[in-house]
Amino acid sequence: MTQPSGMPHNPGDPVNTDPEATSADRAEAAAEEAKAAQDAQADASSEAEVDPTLDAGLTEEALPETPDVEAELAERTEDLQRLNAEYTNYRRRTERERQAIVENAKAKVVGEFLPVLDDIELARQHGDLEEGPFKSVADKVTKILQSQNLQPFGEEGDPFNPEIHEAVQDLSTGGEQVVGTVLRRGYRVGDKLVRNAMVIIADPAQSDTAE
């Protein structure tokens, strides 16, 4: 029986004779084992991970609205309501201002015709507007000014109002005062006062006879 001698079976193989070749093979085998272990660990980690998009979706659906979001929504709603109210007020104010400008311009133009209306009124009192061409002209002028919302006021017996009546004489003796005699009629354009009526104040009982 042959006893082991401690010598390799093939003494001429470079693996058994070249120390560098033997070390390189061992290093390569160790590297392959390490790489295989690393790949296995990476596969295990990837299986344990959850899809971040799925996790985000579940989180968004599962979490209810926080009090902060509700408070912010209420604040934004209140801001919108306030802005809407401010815009509505601005629009109304602008419309009033525009209407006031129109009324002022109209009153200024119509006011230039008041002396003509005074002459027409005097002619009517003297009976000069019964017929003829002057009556036709007077009627046309009056109609045009009335179409511009010009309204006369100041009639005998009207309660005296110092805001619209200009008194040149006071013949009243009691506490109640009325218009006795109209010396010049007053005019309005809509709600705007164009000219005060010039009057003589009298007592109610004297209003029919005051001259």
Description:
The protein has 211 residues and is an alpha+beta fold. It has six helices and six strands, in the order ααααααββββββ. The model is unreliable at 1-5, 17-21 and 207-211 (pLDDT under 50). It has a domain at 151-211: Head domain of nucleotide exchange factor GrpE (Nucleotide Exchange Factor Grpe, Chain A, domain 2, Roll). The termini are far apart. A three-stranded antiparallel sheet has the order 1-4-5. Strands 2-6-3 form a three-stranded mixed sheet, with no helix packed on it. Strand 4 (186-189) and strand 5 form a beta hairpin.
Biggest sheet overview: 3 strands, antiparallel
Query: Strands of the biggest beta sheet: in what spatial order?
Result: 1-4-5
pLDDT averaged over residues: 78
The share of residues in extended strands comes to 5-15%
What CATH architecture of the domain at 151-211 do you see?
Roll
Distance between the termini: 172 Å
CATH superfamily of the domain at 151-211: Head domain of nucleotide exchange factor GrpE
InterPro entries: GrpE, GrpE_CC, GrpE_head
Biased composition (Basic and acidic residues): 23-36
Subunit structure: Homodimer.
Pfam families: GrpE
